[in-house]
Specification:
With about 325 residues, the protein is of the alpha/beta class. The protein is built from 9 helices and 9 strands. The strands form 3 sheets. Strands 1-2-4-6-7 form a 5-stranded parallel sheet, with helices on one face. Helix 2 runs parallel beside helix 3 and helix 7 runs parallel beside helix 8. The radius of gyration is 21 Å and the shape is globular. It starts with a helix and ends in an 8-residue tail after the last helix.
Amino acid sequence: PLHLAQEYGGWTNRKLIGFYENFARTVFEHFRGRVQYWLTFNEINSILHFPILAGIMNTTDKQDLYQAIHHELVASARVTKIAHNKIGCMILAMPRYPLTPNPDDVWAALDAAHDDFTFGDVHCRGTYPGYFLRKLREAGIELDITEQDRIDLRNTVDFVSFSYYMSVCESATDTTRGPGNLIGGIPNPTLAASQWGWQIDPVGLRIILNEYWNRWQKPLFIVENGLGARDELVDGTVADDYRISYMNDHLVQVGEAISDGVAVLGYTSWGCIDLVSMSTAEMSKRYGFIYVDRNDDGSGTLQRYRKKSFYWYKDVIASNGATLTP
């Protein structure tokens, strides 16, 4: 809420932990018996790239940023204890490959991945990993961590959920950035890209599922995956075979991961209906199975139309994936 950002400095302020607990108790009670799975923070690691998501409006100070991260993690752990239900964390997942076999590039990829792993490590293991503490020390950052905070963090999640859209490469020397690499990384020269420059990497989803499962041994839930594209409405529908191909190939890789032994709780696409895209704030970047007659300038009737992918996905669900094409 804007008030918490303006009056309290967002999650830089420890008071937000208590506010969040009150909010969580309220929604837990209101939806008691109707919600099976809960997530505490959406794409919690996005704070590293977009501090405004944590209500941090007027500073780029690293001390404030990492203190806010700590407060969010403590709040998440406290709410996990309150829930007494199936509760998980939610991470923006993005495989990071070395651009070359050079060991320096391999380390650059692992070092970049550490930033995302930290959030899962704390949620699943209940303590900060050594590589994160070293990063703070070398940056001269000293967090306000109370003994009660350490106790609270031990309330670990039941499962890990994540969004997955793309992968990137990392290099120790190459600083190239593509138009779609909003949160770092180098475009992968071996992969095709979407109209917004996001690398299309179905196998990356299998990689991340195996990586997370082997690291945390917690059931996994893919809660966002889809393709943003410019759709053309013709005769009351959209022939979005490109979206069908994207989702088919990604779901096939989910099946491969399940065969690998990964415990996958479920998959939900992003999204079921066209809406304003968060990353670019425009309607023309469409993800849904249902077309909404609305344009970037606000014009349009808001009439809904089922796309070709709507019927395709309906069959995938009804057949439990049997209609997928390997």
